[in-house]
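Input (structure):
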């Protein structure tokens, strides 16, 4: 059986371990999957399904090494985006901030484990420390609330 996975709109390519039989899938990432918040639309010979992704908000602080190399921060952000893509995800946005945190990144991953693996790799480089939050869309939160009834 062959698989073609893609977001409902396309902009960048990626790959992910698929939910259908553990197959390795290539897909195009982009916008929002029409009916469940952020997701991947998977087309198979059995039809088309949407799979939700895990969204993470990363609150970042530079380490001593990171601040010493502040001139490289935009290059490191581009490397972070590539790393996230290698784990089947995409960076929605990364911004630099004034205040308690030096930067904030929002990224989508095919699952929590892929997100954690990417963030462990970033942390091991020694430039940032992160506080990571698992985030939920309004549709996901509605589904969570419906489980409380």
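Output (sequence):
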């Amino acid at each position: 059986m062959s698989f073609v996975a893609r977001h409902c709109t396309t902009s960048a390519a990626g790959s992910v371990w698929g939910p259908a039989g553990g197959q390795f899938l290539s897909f195009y990432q982009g916008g929002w999957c029409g009916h469940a918040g952020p997701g991947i639309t998977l087309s198979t010979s059995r039809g088309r399904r949407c799979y939700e992704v895990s969204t993470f908000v990363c609150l970042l602080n530079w380490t001593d090494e990171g601040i010493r190399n502040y001139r490289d921060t935009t290059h490191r952000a581009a490397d972070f985006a590539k790393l996230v893509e290698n784990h089947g995800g995409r960076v929605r946005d990364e911004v630099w901030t004034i205040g308690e945190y030096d930067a904030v990144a929002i990224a989508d991953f095919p699952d929590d484990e892929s997100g954690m693996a990417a963030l462990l790799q970033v942390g091991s480089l020694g430039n940032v420390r992160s506080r990571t939050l698992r985030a939920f869309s309004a549709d996901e939160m509605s589904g969570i609330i419906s489980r409380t009834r």
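Notes: The two ends are 39 Å apart (CA to CA). The chain is about 30% helix and 40% strand.
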